[in-house]
Design goal:
Blueprint: H1 3-8, H2 18-23, E1 26-27, E2 39-40, H3 45-54, H4 60-71, H5 78-99, H6 106-120, E3 123-128, E4 131-136, H7 142-161, E5 169-171, E6 180-182, H8 195-212
Antiparallel strand pairs: 1-2, 3-4, 5-6
Helix pairs in contact: 3-4, 5-6, 5-7, 6-7
Bound molecules: zinc ion.
């Protein structure tokens, strides 16, 4: 197991959808964030590739097929990383606005439309259990892989945006956290990305504040 993979496994997957977990690979972007600067976990394309397996964006078979061309390379694949990160930030703008019940404009959706169009070239009808199903073509270069994976995330984003689960989209209530998630709780009262992380910290802050005021 590589060092990067042990680090990537520490990243919590709490979004309830892979595309939300993808957006949650960064924090500190909400306009009223209490963090001084955004904290981005995607600092190399290699790390993104490891994350893709961790978050089940790719299968183990795909990981095995592509890993030597990515993980054995000292090349930083900077343009590929930039296209992935830029796309993630365009998704954050869409999903964060919707989580705050703010409208989105066609301009805000344009990068997603562009990614869908580029990614479409990599989609292929294939056969799964004897039935036609969407699959993805094999990529020969890392550039192609970046486009294909962005396309795959774009398809997931599009289906979440136009599907019934969108009504359950929320953003963590902590100003230290802008993670997005689908509230699948029974009473739909979930406030935190995770009670054990942001919920506990906020509770502790409130207790400290109350203690200091005595
Ligand atoms: Zn949180």
């Amino acid at each position: 197991m590589s060092h990067a993979f042990s680090a990537v496994k520490m990243i919590r997957l709490i979004g309830g959808a892979v595309v939300l977990d993808f957006i949650n690979t960064c924090n500190g972007r909400r306009p009223n964030s209490s963090l001084d600067a955004p904290q981005d976990r995607l600092n190399s394309f290699q790390f993104f590739f490891e994350w893709a397996l961790h978050a089940s964006l790719i299968t183990h078979a795909e990981y095995e097929a592509y890993k030597s061309s990515i993980l054995d390379s000292v090349f930083p694949f900077q343009p590929c990383l930039k296209s992935v990160v830029d796309f993630r930030e365009s998704l954050f703008r869409i999903f964060y606005a919707l989580s705050q019940e703010q409208p989105v404009t066609p301009e805000v959706l344009q990068p997603l439309n562009d990614a869908l169009e580029r990614g479409n070239a990599w989609r292929v009808l294939t056969v799964k259990n004897g039935l036609p199903a969407w699959g993805w073509k094999h990529c020969s270069t890392v550039d192609e892989l970046a486009t294909m994976l962005v396309g795959r995330l774009a398809v997931q984003a599009e289906s979440l945006l136009t599907g019934p689960d969108l009504q359950h989209l929320k953003c963590c209530s902590s100003l230290e956290c802008d993670w997005l998630f689908l509230d699948s709780s029974k009473n739909k009262q979930r406030r935190w990305c995770q009670m054990s992380v942001c919920g506990s910290r906020e509770k502790l802050n409130r207790l400290k504040h109350a203690g200091g005021a005595l």
